[in-house]
Amino acid sequence: xxxxxxxxxxxEVQGIVKTGGLADVAKALxxxxxxxxxxxxxxxxxxxxxxxxxxxxxxxxxxxxxxxHTPYKVRSAEFNGIEVFLIDNDDFFNRPELxxxxxxxxxxxxxxxxxxxxxxxxxxxxxxxxxxxxxxxxWHTGLVPFLxxxxxxxxxxxxxxKSVLTVHNAxxxxxxxxxxxxxxxxxxxxxxxxxxxxxxxxxxxxxxIAYADRVNAVSPNYAMELMTPLGSxxxxxxxxxxxxxxxxxxxxCDYSEWNPQTDVYLPKxxxxxxxxxxxxxxxxxxxxxxxxxxxxxxxxxxxxxxCRLTAQKGFHYLLPILSEFLRNDVQxxxxxxxxxxxxxxxxxxxxxxxxKCAFFEAYSNEYAHLVEAGSDFFLxxxxxxxxxxxxxxxxxxxxxxxxxxxxxxxxxxxDFDRNPDDATGFSFSDPTPQALxxxxxxxxxxxxxxxxxxxxxxxxxxxxxxSWSDSANEYIKMYKxxxx
Length: 484
Ligand code: GLC
What we know:
Elements: E1 5-9, H1 21-35, E2 39-45, E3 58-63, E4 71-79, E5 82-88, H2 90-93, E6 100-101, E7 104-105, H3 109-127, E8 133-137, H4 143-150, E9 162-167, E10 175-177, E11 201-203, H5 204-211, E12 214-217, H6 220-225, H7 236-241, E13 246-248, H8 275-292, E14 302-306, H9 315-325, E15 331-335, H10 340-352, E16 357-360, H11 365-374, E17 377-380, H12 390-396, E18 400-404, H13 407-412, E19 426-428, H14 433-449, H15 451-463, H16 468-483
Parallel strand pairs: 1-2, 1-8, 2-5, 8-9, 9-12, 12-13, 14-15, 14-17, 15-16, 17-18, 18-19
Antiparallel strand pairs: 3-4, 4-5, 6-7, 10-11
Bound molecules: alpha-D-glucopyranose.
């Protein structure tokens, strides 16, 4: 069989622009697929924040062949050996951010990503590209599978193409008023009930779920959860009706970025080859972290957390018990931006416990690496988590993750008290602050009372391998299945 040719359409790519884990996957998965011999090209919007965007050559200057014939240019770039095409339209993408400013989404996000989804397909014949698989990701490109099946249904050029949708976070459904989305006239034909989301509204994610040839969630457990009323974010019928075509494929870890042995952000590199290297490296990085975060430089158990400040990440479990936990001789370092109310509460607690709790309100890749390396435990008490990547990075850095047993967190972390011989971290399941507090205390007890066992668990966590190669094999199986 000839090598599979993939057109990967996505709204962000790590190393180019990133707001979340979606970008990490969009960088690493195409590389892993290419390493397996597939041909992979990526298409994304040409945001102004793409570094050196103006110097990326324009390879096409055109307009949508379909109404509303929006003009656009296509720029090309090579990134880690992958060809990336950037869809350039000033009205939609020449602005400071990707999706939102000051925590408020751009009012025309529906139009912006409807346009991008249209252009992702419009451009194919114009560039002479005929992929086998169109791989869409999340709501931003959820219309792509829909357009492939509806707009291009009788276009021979597209006849053999199949589509796949990867669901990274089904809470974001891409809900917009159908009237606003004039640029997708197909939305107004009859029979579109499986796209609707309330009267007069459509969900771009629903469009993708309904029309993609195959759908996958980014972990096996999230795929299961999506088929339950509790875990489906309201889309249980949509996912259940696709259950035969629904896959769960665990994300991998990009060890070229997340490896304590080579990490360029760390003051001291270390590796799992010896307990001494780990102990020395962790201590040096802990001290650097304490210095950067203005915490006293002491050898106390340090709990790190890096994430968007949203309810999804479990702040409603953490905030009510944080002061109580800080009565222990511990330190906590939190990095992130997001909802102002959560940021305020974190600033308050940090100012009450300046010796113990530091909150750095920023999105900082450098600090994300330092927190992973300098902490003893990493907090991820998520309400839900499609896969989660930070817990995987944490394990690679010998920082034991403390997670709630949801989504991919459940698939990746083994709890110490439940399974001491295989443990790689700590987990709890009740969605309550108290359950989190108990879990954090269990972690603390291990650290203080059984330091040798803590070190064993740490080395075990570091030796776990979540490389993208295995995940890429699963994606290839799904592609082959779609192409059968
Ligand atoms: C989203 C999910 C996260 C997942 C990431 C990459 O950010 O919330 O759980 O790891 O996408 O798939």
